[in-house]
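HUMAN: Quick job: go over this next protein and say how the chain folds.
***
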Amino acid sequence: MNKLAEKVALVTGASRGIGRAIAQTFLEQGAKVALCSRSLPELESLADAWNQKSRRALAIECDVTSQSSVDRAVAEIENSWGKLHIVVNNAGISGRTPIDEDADALWQQILDVNLGGSYRVARRALPLITSGGGRLLNISSVLGRFGVPGYAAYCTAKHGILGFTRALALELAPRAITVNAICPGWVDTDMAEQGIQDTAQILGITPEAFKEQALDGVPLRRFIDPKEVAQLALYLCSDDASMVTGQAYNICGGQVMN
């Protein structure tokens, strides 16, 4: 317990899904956590519930596609706590962008949130990590490992996250800041549910039938609990992983082997 005592963390996309699970786990492990998202009411609900025990959660509205919004969010963290030790780039969106359809706006949005947002947050937040032992963690996807028809923008963004991770790991090594990525498979989140609904409609089958198809590609044959991703994030952001950098960890039930 308390693997992150005295640490200050920033988690984007913290209002739901993987981001919420990571933020909750970090709080449970003693960190002060800045919960960042466009959905401020959901963040405030989580922060209020936690702060009844210990005032270590800070809800901050942040749109990672806006540099000024990111600047304000990081400035609020600096004004409140003066420093950062951990940055988790989790904010992301998905969607279908078939090459023969007019999906230019969605293509740009997917790249801007997933890839551009990670760059903006890292660039602005890193100056607050002034001492050794900092952690930057990027959430990619198994779609950063292989392609899926119709999801070229999302695959492009998540592949890009891995290149971003490896380049920054070398760039920040002299500052003793590690940079790693996690590549989740099917996680039980709202985003995954939306993907199931959309794909099932295109295939002309029920969401339940498509989910069975999806599980056929997962040797362990179940979706991942967001808390399982959070436990891997905890390890990579703790002192236990001080010599782990430039790595991308799959958590997918064996999906990438298929």
